[in-house]
User: Which sequence fits this backbone?
């Protein structure tokens, strides 16, 4: 829905800002543990047009096209509003921020949030040999 998309967009822009701050960001440790763009390669919005055609379900293909267009429009709008002194934001960089937010946002009392501690519990515990028991 539009409210969720607006919230995702606000969080994505904040993530972009914090990521660009690098070590100066209080989110630096969290950002360092986020997946890179390759983790999102399997998303349908990243598929080639030929791959989408193989779905053979026009409503889904149409929805994916709308999502792609929304992302492009938001990127153009962001670039228009970013100060000239700031390095340009690539579509790939912006896409990573949006995909990261969409895959890691929690909803609490109608608000969309990034919660690093809760996010860490959502990771594969096998990779680092850690576990959590309640």
Assistant:
């Amino acid at each position: 829905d539009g409210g969720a998309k607006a919230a995702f967009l606000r969080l994505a822009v904040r993530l972009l800002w914090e990521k660009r701050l690098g070590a100066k960001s209080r989110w630096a440790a969290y950002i360092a543990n986020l997946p890179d763009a390759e983790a999102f390669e399997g998303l349908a919005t990243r598929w080639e047009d030929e791959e989408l055609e193989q779905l053979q379900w026009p409503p889904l293909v149409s929805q994916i096209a709308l999502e792609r267009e929304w992302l492009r429009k938001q990127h153009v709008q962001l670039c228009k509003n970013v100060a000239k002194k700031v390095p340009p934001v690539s579509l790939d960089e912006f896409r990573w921020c949006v995909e990261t937010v969409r895959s890691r946002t929690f909803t609490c009392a109608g608000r969309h949030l990034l919660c690093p501690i809760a996010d860490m519990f959502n990771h594969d515990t096998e990779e680092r040999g850690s576990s959590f028991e309640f």
